[in-house]
Every structure is written in C-alpha cells, then in structure tokens.
Design brief:
Structural class: alpha/beta
Largest sheet: 8 strands, mixed
Radius of gyration: 23 Å
Strand order of the largest sheet: 1-2-6-3-7-16-8-14
Distance between the termini: 33 Å
Number of helices: 12
Length: 386
C-alpha cells in the first residue's frame, strides 16, 4: 500500500481495487496497522475479527474516537473505472463472490488514514488522546458489537465522544450534519410458515403456506423475501426500519398479530414461530455535539456545510458510544462529481442517473471528496480535543 504522505489519491485507488468482504478484511487491516505504526500510533489488531485501533496520546485532555470501516460488498462492479475491482473472494458462508466497495468504505478508510497523518503532524495544536478505529464487518452490522465484546475499551480508553462520517449520493464537497435521528434503526423478523399436518412427502394435500405468506406481505405492505421448500413451508424475512421507537414497537406488535390471524384464516394448523432481532440501532446524533459541529463546519466549509435529511440506511456505529453512555456524532459527505450532480439537478433525474450506495455503478468522485473528508475528520476531532 502506498503511504498517505505520498499520495492519498493512490491509496484510495488501491483500496477500491482490492476490496475484502465482511469478516475477510485481513490484508486491508494489516496495511492500516502498518501505516499507523509508521506514525507511532499505539496499534491493536484483530479486535472483533480484523478490527484495528490506533491510539495517539498527546498530553492530558479528552479522548476522541474517529471511526471508519474496512469491509466491502459481494457485488460485481460495473463502473468501468481504470481501477475497477475484479476481485473474487470466498465469503463467510462459503460462496465465491465478486466484490467491490459499493458503499464508500474505501473513501472513509482513506480519509481516516490521511487524517491520521494530519493529526500526528499537528500535535502542537491539540492535547488529549486520539483513537482511530477501523471497524470490520459493518455491512452485516455486527462489527462494532464484536469489537466491544472482544474488549475494545480494555485495550484503549473509553472515549468522551465517538465521531464518524459516511459518503452519500450528494454533490462532492458537501458536508451535512443534523441533530437527532440521522439513520434508521432496523429489526430483522424471520417467520417460518408451516403447512398443515400433511407430511413433506405429500405437500400437495395440505394448505399452501405461500398463499398465507402472500397475504401477510400484502397486509404488512413491506418488502419481504419468500423462499420455497416445495410447498410444505415458506419463510418470510422482513427488514423493518424506523426512526421513532414507538413506530418500531407498533410494528413488532402488529407482525405477530397479523401472522396469527392470517395463519388461522388460511387453515394452517401450526402457528408460526416469529423471531424478531435487532439488526442495527437508531443513529441519533447528540444535540449538544451537533451544535458545536455546526459552528465549526459552517465556519470552515462555508456554503458547503448544511443539515440535510435523515436517510434510510442503518449503521452499528452508535454502539461504540452508547456502550458507555457516551455521545456521538455522524455526518454525511458528498461524493458525486459536480458535473454529473449539477446536470442531474438541471434535468430533474437524480434518482434515475446518480448511483446510490450498494449500486454496482457506485464510486466516489475522488476529489474534492477526499480532501473534504480528511478536513471534516480533522475539524471534528479538534472541536473536542483541547
């Protein structure tokens, strides 16, 4: 990997072209660790899988965590960039997949590596402890908790605040932060639906559970995934998202009620066993922290700073703070080239022509996204360091 001090643009291209899937980020993590060690950060590796943290103590003062992600997605890239990923990996479930950075983790990682050097070289301007955290397995929203379970805050100090950013389909150069909910919480609901008492040898003689599953999906008015095992059993998997806890609770109560009613109505003898689990917590920015952010971001980024709107993706980022009841702040970084963005705005077809996160056509416009991302991390850290 090329050192950030030489050319951060090249490090971004290297990471983009060499993605690693969730739970498989060994080479990326190793390169991150080597870079941090070269700057005399105290490095801890293999936390919660391939997680890496680097600590830089610079006198007395607050403890600030800056976080980025390591992992990529099992998607075949279609950007046609000169540094397009053509990499294959065996994912954690044993299937070989093409993979790419389709959600901006390559940009987040590169920005944080560049910020590590910037913060190291400006030590005379701040005091406290800076912790750079590179999280594995964010795509499954398991990595943050895995790092906590593996003793993260026994290896480094519990922070006073945790900070992070995410590139989004916005005009490059933009930085948006808002108080309160910014990303949704998500619950995963698994509902196996059995047929009648007929054996699997003669499922045609029983009630078709697919009919029941279809009626449930219509009533829930939610996207689901139905898998078939002949017609003996169906399974619905729902991804339930919401910003308000009361709405999530209403949904948690409504799903079993609807399932039971439709199962009885459809003639199923076996009531479904519903498994509801938290996939990701609500990302809910601390109001006091955001107030300080707005002052600094508005001053530094001028008209390129804004508030924006909450987004529907979910994250496990907040666990890193809420595990010890600490505040956190999370902001969005524009990553779409200005020419493409402005054209789409003029033509009114942003949704149709601007690739979003998880698209095979998604890639960050390198500059000024990279420079703004590095600056945002440094400005954010300096807000809270003495």
């Amino acid at each position: 990997m090329i050192g950030v001090r030489n050319n951060p643009k090249e490090i971004y291209k290297h990471v983009h072209q060499n993605p690693e899937l969730s739970c498989k980020e060994a080479k990326t993590a190793s390169q991150v660790a080597k870079h941090l060690e070269s700057l005399r950060y105290k490095v801890h590796e293999k936390i919660g899988g391939h997680g890496v943290v680097g600590g830089l103590q610079n006198g007395n003062g607050p403890v600030v965590v800056l976080r980025a992600e390591l992992d990529a997605l099992p998607i075949q890239e279609a950007t046609n960039l000169p540094y397009t990923s053509t990499k294959h990996m065996i994912e954690q479930y044993g299937y070989e997949r093409l993979d790419m950075h389709a959600r901006g983790h390559d940009m987040h990682l590169t920005c944080l590596l560049a910020a590590s050097e910037l913060m190291f070289s400006s030590r005379s301007q701040w005091s406290g402890t800076l912790i750079l955290l590179f999280q594995p397995n964010e795509e499954h929203t398991w990595g943050a908790q895995a790092m906590l379970n593996d003793g993260l805050y026994k290896k480094v100090q519990v922070p006073d605040i945790v900070l992070g950013q995410h590139s989004m389909p916005m005009r490059t150069g933009r930085v948006n932060i808002r108080s309160g909910p910014i990303l949704t919480a998500a619950d995963t609901v698994n509902i196996p639906i059995g047929s009648t008492s007929e054996t699997s040898l003669n499922p045609q003689n029983g009630v078709n559970p697919i009919d029941v599953a279809a009626r449930v999906l219509v009533r829930l008015e939610s996207a689901g995934q139905v898998r078939l095992d002949t017609v003996q059993e169906a399974e619905i998997t729902l991804d339930v998202k919401g910003y308000k806890p009361v709405v999530r609770q209403d949904l948690r109560e409504a799903i079993p009620r609807i399932m039971e009613a439709e199962s009885r109505s459809g003639g199923l003898e076996k009531q479904p066993q519903i498994d509801i689990g938290i996939r990701a917590p609500l990302t809910n920015n601390d109001p006091e922290a955001v107030m300080r952010f707005k002052q600094s971001f508005d001053s530094y980024f001028k008209d390129s700073a804004g508030e924006g709107e909450p987004c529907r993706p979910c994250e496990d980022f907040s666990y890193l703070a809420t595990a010890h009841n600490k505040p956190y702040a999370y902001w969005f970084l524009g990553a779409v080239g200005a020419v493409n963005w402005d054209r789409a705005c003029r033509e009114g077809n942003i949704v149709e022509v601007i690739p979003g996160n998880h698209s095979p056509f998604y890639a960050s416009s390198i500059q000024p996204t990279l420079q703004v991302g590095v600056d945002a991390l440094a400005v954010a850290a300096l807000i809270f360091l003495d």
